[in-house]
């Protein structure tokens, strides 16, 4: 027990059942740390004070904290074990080859640079070309593309006399007419420098289709089609879709123009603009060569698109020509109708049709329903019905959060009442067929979660269902057996194409830290740049307004949190 001098005058001795801590001496009782005001015991030196009482945990709280600490330790051990399990290499499994073992070094763990598999080609000797006249000092050459001009206008702008233009057209009489010229068609004319008389002329539609007229010994201009030794050959390739789609297909050994034939094969299902980063394309194509060099891709024979998400089913397309069926078909033997418009919410039912004479369910007056409503839960993905350019992203009054897309055929589609937008979507951005634009919601004037899908051309709304959304043709019965056999053979060939590796991550150059500006002198005013005003479509559009006519929809006005605080376009 403490000495009697350290106990309070009224302190009782410890007894059974009492808490010893309640009988500890205090400064007020004159303990050993009593200050100058204590009645008994030593005093502290001047300027010092007593320490506060120490923390105290009961046995129950001690057990609780001990249990929490034990659970935290166990969780950390489990996390370490999970990190130690190697990730399955799906490419190695599909291709049938074992995954390479890691060496443990930094260089071995870094993916190898993608090898550009450029095909070795041997040029063949060809016919005489007009470019050989460039060495003749008495001849002047003029060349250009047709663009949107007529044949006569294009040559006239290059200084070819009208009489010589008609002479060229006469030379190709019965061989080719020039009333319909392609925008990318190129012509080259060789004229006598002094008289402007045409000595030779070439018209190039492609590397494999070239027309030429040349003066003979008698001065007669005669037209012919050049023999470019056209040949066809199958191409088997695969590429990993990265940030740059052009670099991606070039790393697979493919030539420019391959995206055009891929879009033809995928028409009505998706387009190359909607390819996700991390996805994989395997294909068998037919290429055409001229004089031994690449000219163009004629068609896709078979194609597989593997989405970046392994849980999504790959899409396979096959070129097939039967007794009645012709074109590109999927695994089910289905072919989209011409046009290739997709439903913005696949599988969702139509809950309200386009109706110019609709009686408004809330306002009780005649108001047109300028769209088609698809019923779906909040958060359901919404996709672009066709490829195009984004016109608007932002709140639009009764339409709530709205996205509009302008398509190449002049049709503009709208996607209203969205709960949020697709990450990264912005005005001016190109989107592909079936590319994510947002998620179903109930913002704006809406009675519940749904998508209000509208279509407009020349400023007038029309029934979007007339676009034959997700319309498909079924394989005719007479061709089903032949298609099944062709599909099986092409599946084996696609499966044999090794899956490509992803490209290496680009090495970021080291950037020196900027030197901080010197502090402003006392009394001077620092110049502060104001932040740009942020509009619904980005920082450069503070005055942007929604498209004209947006907001014509049904239901009561519900201004939910998504409208009061519009979500950012991530």
Automatic annotation (TrEMBL):
The keyword Acyltransferase does not apply. Residues 550-559 have a biased composition (Acidic residues). GO terms for molecular function: metalloendopeptidase activity. Keywords: Signal. Residues 368-463 form the M23ase beta-sheet core domain. Residues 1-58, 97-124, 496-570 are annotated as: Disordered. Residues 521-533 have a biased composition (Low complexity). Pfam families: Peptidase_M23 (PF01551). SUPFAM superfamilies: Duplicated hybrid motif. The keyword Signal applies. This is Peptidase. It comes from Sorangium cellulosum.
């Amino acid at each position: 027990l403490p000495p009697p001098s350290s106990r309070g005058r009224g302190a009782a001795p410890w007894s059974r059942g009492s808490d010893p801590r309640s009988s500890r001496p205090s400064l007020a009782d004159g303990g050993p740390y009593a200050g100058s005001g204590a009645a008994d015991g030593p005093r502290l030196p001047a300027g010092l004070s007593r320490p506060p009482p120490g923390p105290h945990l009961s046995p129950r709280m001690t057990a609780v904290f001990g249990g929490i600490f034990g659970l935290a330790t166990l969780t950390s051990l489990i996390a370490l074990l999970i990190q130690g399990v190697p990730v399955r290499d799906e490419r190695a499994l599909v291709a049938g080859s074992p995954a390479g073992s890691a060496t443990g070094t930094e260089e071995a763990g870094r993916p190898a640079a993608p090898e550009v598999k450029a095909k070795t080609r041997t040029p063949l000797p060809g016919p005489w070309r007009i470019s050989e006249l460039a060495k003749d000092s008495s001849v002047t050459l003029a060349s250009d593309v047709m663009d949107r001009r007529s044949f006569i206008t294009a040559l006239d702008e290059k200084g070819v006399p009208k009489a010589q233009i008609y002479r060229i057209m006469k030379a190709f009489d019965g061989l080719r007419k020039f009333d319909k010229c392609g925008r990318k068609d190129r012509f080259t004319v060789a004229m006598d420098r002094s008289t402007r008389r045409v000595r030779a002329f070439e018209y190039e539609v492609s590397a494999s289709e070239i027309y030429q007229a040349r003066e003979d010994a008698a001065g007669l201009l005669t037209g012919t089609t050049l023999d470019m030794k056209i040949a066809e050959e199958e191409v088997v390739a695969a590429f990993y879709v990265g940030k740059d789609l052009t670099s991606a297909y070039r790393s697979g050994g493919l030539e420019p123009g391959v995206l055009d034939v891929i879009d033809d094969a995928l028409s009505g299902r998706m387009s190359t603009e909607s390819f996700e980063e991390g996805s994989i394309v395997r294909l068998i194509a037919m290429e055409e060569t001229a004089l031994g060099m690449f000219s163009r891709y004629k068609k896709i024979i078979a194609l597989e698109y593997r989405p970046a998400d392994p849980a999504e089913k790959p899409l396979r397309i096959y070129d097939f020509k039967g007794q009645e069926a012709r074109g590109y078909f999927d695994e089910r033997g289905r072919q989209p109708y011409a046009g290739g418009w997709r439903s913005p919410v696949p599988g969702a039912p139509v809950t309200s049709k386009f109706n110019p004479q609709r009686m408004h369910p809330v306002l009780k007056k005649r108001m047109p329903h300028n769209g088609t409503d698809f019923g779906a839960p909040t958060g359901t993905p919404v996709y672009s019905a066709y490829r195009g350019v984004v016109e608007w992203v932002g709140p639009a009054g009764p339409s709530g959060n709205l996205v509009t897309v302008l398509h190449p055929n002049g049709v503009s589609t709208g996607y209203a009442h969205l709960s949020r937008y697709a990450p990264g979507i912005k005005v001016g951005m190109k989107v592909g067929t079936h590319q994510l634009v947002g998620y179903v919601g109930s913002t704006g004037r809406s009675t519940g979660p749904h998508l209000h899908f509208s279509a407009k051309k020349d400023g007038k709304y029309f029934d979007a269902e007339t676009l034959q959304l997700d319309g498909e043709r079924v394989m005719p019965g007479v061709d089903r057996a032949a298609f099944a056999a062709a599909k099986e053979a092409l599946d084996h060939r696609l499966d044999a194409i090794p899956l490509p590796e992803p490209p290496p991550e680009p090495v970021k150059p080291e950037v020196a830290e900027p030197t901080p500006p010197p502090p402003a002198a006392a009394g001077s005013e620092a110049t502060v740049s104001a932040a740009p005003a942020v509009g619904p479509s980005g920082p450069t559009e503070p005055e942007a307004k929604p498209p004209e006519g947006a907001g014509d929809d049904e239901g009561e006005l519900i201004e939910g949190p998504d409208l009061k605080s519009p979500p950012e376009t991530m």
